[in-house]
Specification:
Length: 240
């Protein structure tokens, strides 16, 4: 009976949503469609008791899947296993099977995530896209997502992200990031306002009547000061 107990699964979402359940011996025990296209594919492709890599290749080579991939539609494949080592091994195998297939994305998922997805009638790949879309549009429902392709979901996510981006960038610029332009000017402003010390040296000489005053020039980003002493003689007109 152990050979007929599902222990892992591979889910795929593109236009269809379909799950392969595997035994401990890595053979396909059942194929379940989670939407109309998935159920049609499950009937059209007989992969029961095949090794999962052979089953996956047969599904990928089907005319329906190839047509969607030629139209640049994204396909999400998620490996689910309670054993992390087995999950990593299966992911490597799935990536090898899909090598050369454009726009196919392979991931691992947890049993808890898979259970949450099934509870709302979705598979893991589409469930993740649903959560991403719901974060942008809280009104979206799982029932609405069930009939959409992965391309349609991604297009809606992209459109909503573009709509929200100007508001987000505006908030960012009105917040703490406003300080960036000011910070580039701060050294100049600080130098002027706070008198950042730059010392200059100047030499001056002066001549005058009685006292002398000199002006000096200094080198540096500061004011040089010079002191001059003049030797002058004052003659008393009344002196002889």
């Amino acid at each position: 009976m152990a050979n007929f107990t599902p222990v892992s699964a591979i889910t795929s979402d593109i236009n269809h949503s379909r799950e392969l359940s595997m035994t401990r011996c890595d053979r396909v025990l059942s194929v379940t469609g989670y939407n109309e296209d998935g159920r049609s594919l499950a009937k059209a492709v007989n992969v029961t008791f095949l090794k999962y890599e052979d089953a996956l290749r047969q599904i990928l080579d089907s005319a329906d899947i190839q047509e969607h991939l030629r139209r640049e539609e994204p396909m999400s494949i998620v490996v689910v296993s309670p054993d992390q080592q087995q999950s990593d091994k299966m992911l490597d195998t799935v990536r090898h099977c899909t090598q050369g297939q454009h726009n196919v994305h392979c991931h691992t998922g947890s049993s808890e995530e898979a259970a949450a997805a099934r509870a709302v009638g979705l598979l893991t790949g589409k469930y993740r896209a649903f959560l991403e879309l719901q974060a942008l549009d809280p009104s979206v429902t799982p029932e609405e997502i069930q009939g959409l392709t992965m391309r349609e979901i991604r297009d809606r996510i992209a459109a909503l992200s573009e709509q929200k981006e100007p508001a987000g960038s505006s908030e960012a610029s009105s917040g703490g990031q406003e300080a960036e332009p000011q910070s580039s000017k701060a050294p100049v402003s600080s130098s002027c306002e706070q008198g950042t010390p730059h010392q200059g040296q100047g030499n001056g000489t002066g001549q005058g009547n009685g006292t002398g005053q000199g002006q000096g020039q200094g080198n540096g980003m500061g004011h040089g000061q010079g002191h001059g002493h003049g030797n002058g003689q004052h003659r008393d007109r009344n002196a002889s």
